[in-house]
Design brief:
One of its GO terms (biological process) is regulation of COPII vesicle coating. The chain is an alpha+beta fold and about 475 residues long. Among the domains are: about 70 residues, no CATH class; about 150 residues, no CATH class. It is built from six helices and 32 strands. Strand 14 and strand 15 form a beta hairpin. The structure holds 2-acetamido-2-deoxy-beta-D-glucopyranose (4 copies). One 2-acetamido-2-deoxy-beta-D-glucopyranose binds next to loops.
């Protein structure tokens, strides 16, 4: 009897799990639980589509990794989901490729007319492809040292229906002894600026003929970014249109340029006060900047002047800043601060520049933060490899992925349609987590609990002879 109920619950879980699966990890946990249940009650078959992290040899990692939590990895097999992939080098920076914006260059003259005629069809198929097949860019490596870990820039595919990152990268560019440390992906498809410890390089997309991601190439550009020569950038980003580039360096230089002309719009030097994070406001009029110490500054880009200094309270260290993404009047600025080694989110009114509130959201130091393009969600990542997704309106927890990675999270980026969250880590893995609406799942979760409770009650009553034999 109890076995019957258990199988029914397990079956129900599998059904709802595979259909909706609020978060892959939750789904995964359910599946694991069911597997255990099945092997106890039914059979001992092992699910075949599981991957083991045997190929991620921890001894190969560079010195930096010693500080991260690879210890548990050495202890042996750990199953990873298809939405995670290990790339063989610590990943420092990551982002989504705006594939649908990358212009195609026709391979030859004859194809040109054909392309024009098929323009509409291709637009449609590209649109449907774009939502199923996404591309991510990842950069990192072992640095200059003798670690043997390569430095590389990798473009990899993510298949939405199967929730899996591709086994083989679409593009892989070795960067010799230069470690890709930060990147800014041009939002309308020009290319990628990759920053290294002693300079930055500009890579351009090349898409010939048809709109097929397999035909995509990324080439180092001949145009050099002389303005960024010998500079170690800590933060860089484009505005939404891709017409302005903001850069912040380790030696304390904040510089903003018109793109692609690289004419300077703004410059601020504070010696030995490294720039940590930068963000453009939704309308592109303002820029927020953070340094290792001091307030968060808000700049007006038209007049190149500071319009607000957002002060720290005692004990706070600012780490990240992001403007909320909405065109309405209720815009806020989110600042991530560390307070006694706990991560908190502080919000500021963007009209009065007054502090609205703050909330401690995680117990561990935060090493990555971002906001979804639709403005609804925030994601924080910790040095322990955990991810917390929050509602941006009320800072309530939307979902938690405890061990998304084994090491420090280096970046978190939502896809353009806000349906997926890309995370990367020092543990050499990248992961894409599908974001699903919470409501319906909350309901089905309750349904599951109800079924379990009813089952337990039924069993209790039956074994006590309170109701007749079922
Ligand atoms: C950075 O420095 C290393 C050695 O110090 C050199 O090999 C490399 O070419 C430099 N890279 C850039 C982009 O200047
Ligand atoms: C960058 O460093 C190299 C080697 O030290 C030097 O030759 C070059 O002039 C520097 N460039 C700039 C823009 O400072
Ligand atoms: C930009 O600044 C100039 C003066 O410096 C002013 O005339 C203009 O209206 C400003 N534009 C916007 C969009 O604020
Ligand atoms: C910011 O302050 C203005 C003026 O007091 C107010 O109208 C607006 O609602 C505030 N916005 C938020 C998000 O609190």
């Amino acid at each position: 009897m109890i076995f019957l109920i258990f199988s029914l619950v397990a079956f129900y879980l599998e059904e709802t799990g595979s259909r909706s699966g609020r978060f892959d990890s939750l789904h995964f946990r359910f599946r694991r639980w069911m597997q255990i249940g099945r092997s106890i009650f039914v059979d001992r078959t092992v699910q075949p589509n599981r991957l083991a992290v045997e190929d991620a040899d921890p001894s190969k990692f560079c010195d930096l990794l010693k500080t991260s939590t690879t210890g548990s990895m050495a202890r042996g097999r750990r199953e990873i989901e298809p939405c995670s992939k290990t790339y063989g080098f610590p990943i420092y920076c990551a982002g989504w490729v705006p594939f649908s914006h990358i212009p195609t260059s026709s391979a030859s003259q004859e194809n040109e007319n054909e392309n024009e005629n098929e323009g509409d069809d291709k637009g449609d198929s590209a649109a449907s492809d774009a939502s199923d097949k996404l591309l991510v860019a990842l950069g990192g490596g072992g640095g200059e040292g003798r670690s043997g870990v390569p430095n590389a820039l990798v473009i990899s595919g993510f298949d939405f229906p199967s929730r899996s990152l591709s086994d083989e990268p679409v593009i892989r560019i070795g960067t010799e002894s230069d470690l890709p440390y930060r990147m800014a992906i041009h939002p309308t498809g020009d290319g990628i600026i990759c920053s290294f410890p002693n300079g930055s390089r500009w890579f351009k997309w090349d898409l010939r003929g048809s709109r097929d991601y397999k035909k995509l190439a990324l080439n180092p550009s001949e145009e050099s970014l002389t303005q960024l020569e010998n500079v170690s950038l800590q933060a860089l980003c484009f505005n939404k249109e891709g017409s302005v580039l903001a850069t912040g360096s380790e030696d304390g230089n904040l510089r903003v340029f018109k793109w692609p002309a690289m004419e300077s719009i703004l410059s601020e030097v504070v010696d030995d006060n490294s720039v940590k994070d930068l963000d453009f406001s939704f309308d592109g009029k303002h820029l927020a900047s953070l340094r290792s110490s001091g307030p968060c500054r808000v700049w007006d880009l038209n007049s190149s002047s500071v319009i607000a200094n957002l002060a720290r309270e005692s004990g706070e260290i600012f780490r990240f800043c992001r403007f909320s993404c909405s065109s309405d009047d209720n815009q806020v600025l989110f600042v991530i601060a560390m307070h006694d080694d706990q991560g908190k989110i502080i919000t500021w009114n963007t009209t009065t520049w007054k502090r609205i509130g703050s909330k401690r959201v995680v117990k561990d130091p935060i090493s990555a933060f971002n906001i979804s393009p639709d403005g609804k969600l925030l994601a924080v990542g910790t040095i322990e490899g955990g991810i917390v997704v929050l509602n941006s309106k009320n800072l309530q927890v939307h979902s938690v992925i405890k061990k998304a990675h084994l090491g420090l999270l280096t970046s978190l980026v939502f896809s353009q349609d806000s349906r997926a969250l890309l995370s990367s880590s020092f543990d050499s893995t990248a992961r894409v987590t599908a974001i699903e609406a919470k409501k319906s799942n909350g309901l089905s979760m309750w349904l599951v609990f109800l079924v379990i409770i009813v089952a337990i009650l039924a069993y209790y009553f039956q074994s006590n002879g309170l109701i007749g034999n079922l």
